[in-house]
Q: What sequence folds into this?
DNA sequence: CGCTAAGGATTGTTGAACAACTCGACAAGA
DNA sequence: TCTTGTCGAGTTGTTCAACAATCCTTAGCG
């Protein structure tokens, strides 16, 4: 687990790097990490003065970082009330899966033209997930699974779609944390990823598209079942 | 003596105060409009002090607006050098059309489940384009055409995809301005929009998808031909 | 001709100040 | 009791001035 003091130290160190980016972006990276790791739970208010003091940066700089994360939908900005870690509604989850179906299915439909490098990264993600599953490390399975789907999207060969997918997966992390039992959520899909990979390697774009469609339908249902009661 | 108009006006005024957004967002709206309309040409540097003075706002607030537009890819941020109106490369244009093919084709594929309200807005955009074309108002044709494609995307029933499309079309405006002859670019598609609409109304999702695919291919080619020489 | 150093311009970041707004607590009145 | 008005503490919104960091140009030098 991250703790604030470690973070301050690493931040101070990072700032001495030569290729450094703006402080606002560094802070955004830091906060993003905390949010998708679940350190700051959805609904938590992030107080400007408090965080600015802790990170030893000015409020103005912090506000720039907030803007960035707001645009990524990880933070919610309520005017004159503050910024809060985004709370996703069931409708948000449904929408995210709508987008996934559009972007990911379009990707696998182009299996036939898949570049070797892309195939390799997909394969690697599948293998990583299997390895992690064998070791009962379900958090790692989740990470590998994200990489798998991110790799699928690169079949589209579109930098913009890649970025959209990155943001989408980060947003989904806000939901994953409500899963009490990550194993039950991730386990079924380890084998499915392998099967989907086989279809892609065979150049069966149409079949892969159909397979992925029901794959995503089921994932969405599982997530919504676990999510609705609490929300 | 009070009269009814005074009351209405004061209420309207109060409403604008209540609904008003932050200064940064207002400024972002203003700058976005200028960029989209081509007032500030691609490549133009936007000086912080100069614009902040002109708009009578602080540099900090202006920088927040810059961030917003940077995230929409209308501005390019070069660290320690300033912000510039984005200059799209041919590769950018190709990528934008890749995204369009994914998002728009997925939309029309669902023609069969099209809600009446969506069909109506698509129809309206087609009619507007035809009307504007008849009056030789090619700028209006372009606007109607944008609305047409934006309406197509709503077939996906996804707010996130709607927003992506809005940003995408705004970004494309950066390119449209290089077209010396807007008529030659827009004219061929007025009739095509009508034909595509017919396929959608008939629920021919598959056919509509194929039709739109080649439609977009051709539009991309036309744009790239006009763009490459200058770029 | 190429390299370096200095200077000017612009952005990056800070800290403080004040205005605007939210929200809860409490009092006054129906 | 319920509603309404008022107050005050706390937070965000915005501005301002200052200085540091960086880039670009140009002048001087070998």
A:
């Amino acid at each position: 687990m991250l703790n604030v003091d470690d973070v301050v130290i690493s931040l101070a160190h990072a700032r001495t790097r030569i290729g450094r980016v703006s402080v606002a972006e560094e802070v955004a990276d830091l906060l993003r990490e905390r949010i998708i790791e679940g350190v700051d739970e959805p609904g938590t208010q992030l107080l400007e003065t408090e965080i600015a003091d802790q990170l030893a940066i000015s409020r103005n700089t912090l506000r720039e970082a907030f803007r960035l994360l707001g645009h990524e939908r990880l933070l919610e900005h309520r005017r004159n009330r503050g910024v809060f870690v985004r709370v996703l509604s069931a409708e948000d989850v449904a929408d995210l899966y709508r987008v996934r179906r559009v972007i990911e299915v379009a990707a696998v439909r182009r299996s036939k033209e898949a570049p070797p490098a892309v195939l390799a990264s997909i394969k690697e993600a599948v293998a990583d997930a299997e390895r992690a599953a064998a070791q009962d490390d379900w958090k790692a399975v989740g990470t590998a699974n994200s990489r798998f789907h991110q790799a699928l999207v690169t079949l589209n060969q579109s930098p913009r779609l890649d970025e959209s997918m990155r943001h989408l997966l980060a947003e989904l992390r806000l939901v994953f944390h409500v899963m009490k039992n990550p194993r039950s959520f991730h386990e079924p899909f380890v084998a499915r990823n392998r099967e989907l990979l086989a279809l892609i390697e065979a150049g069966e774009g149409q079949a892969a598209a159909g397979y992925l469609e029901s794959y995503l339908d089921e994932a969405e249902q599982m997530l919504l079942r676990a999510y609705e009661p609490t929300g």
